[in-house]
Design a protein that fits this description.
The protein has 189 residues and is of the alpha+beta class. The protein contains four helices and nine strands. The longest helix has 19 residues, at 2-20.
Amino acid sequence: MRSVVLTVIGLVLAIGVASATVPDPDNCSVTPCDDYAGVVTIPWEGSPVTYFDFTVNVRNADNDPIPNAFTELVLLTPGNHFVCPAAVMSGTTDGDGNITFNPAVGGCTMDTNAIIVVSNGVTIAAFNNLKSPDFDGGANGTVELGDFAYFSNAMLSHLSGCTDFFNDGDTGLDDFAGFTNGWANNCLD
């Protein structure tokens, strides 16, 4: 009987330890991407422009942070993007359950689950917008004159779409700030 009780206690402890490492999407966050329902990134090589950083916080059902959680960004339509050689699309969380990304990607996708965030095998976030200043109808790894012409036309026409980085329905001054922070960045050198 004692062995049965110890086995049950062992199973309960094992389940508790396992659930401590299972992310609960309701308690996780992607800041500031959650605020504007999308991810904005640029191609870069060497030192990233921190303007485009975003932090993933991974937590379990008890709202406790999950340290050392393997977390990855998955592009569900990778053909729409230029992924730079320096792109960091995965890593592990720190002791507070945080990992910061700036993935070095150009292009644009506005579609269901354009990019998902997966941690310890659980999808914790899905965004329908993955946008970059490296977009003039396509992406080539450089934010250059063609991208500026495309962006300027959208801004002057108050269009939404691939140039409306913060998804407020109009390409405006906030998007221009994003574009200028990405200007002349590339990952081709």
